[in-house]
Design brief:
With 87 residues, the protein is mainly α. It has a domain of 55 residues. Helices cover 57% and strands 0% of the residues. The chain is built from four helices and no strands. The chain is elongated, with a radius of gyration of 21 Å. It starts with 30 loop residues before the first helix and ends with a helix. It comes from Streptomyces bambusae. Pfam families: ParG (PF09274). This is Ribbon-helix-helix domain-containing protein. InterPro entries: DNA_partition_ParG, Ribbon_hlx_hlx.
């Protein structure tokens, strides 16, 4: 919960956002990890912020989780499919 002060929301209540507005989040990274992250973002032609946002959105995507779960189940039964239907 943010309180008033420099760079923070004024007043004693937490910050509120209007739908569609972005939020600022601060995370701490060790120097080596941050350098690796910057290098990956540069190689992909994007920013560190955009890369973190993309990876986080992907992690929170329920459809993706369901799809990956289905792949795992299919992989568990791959031997059966090969025996039953061949290569």
């Amino acid at each position: 919960m943010s309180r008033g002060g420099p760079g923070r929301c004024p007043g004693p209540s937490p910050c509120r956002t209007v739908k569609g507005m972005s939020r600022h989040v601060t995370i701490r990274l060790d120097e080596e990890f941050h350098e690796r992250l910057k290098a990956r973002a540069a190689a992909l032609g994007t920013t560190v912020t955009a890369l973190i946002t993309e990876v986080t959105e992907r992690e929170l995507d329920e459809d993706r989780k369901n799809f990956l779960s289905g792949i795992e189940e299919f992989a568990d039964h791959w031997g059966y499919f090969q025996e039953r239907f061949g290569n």
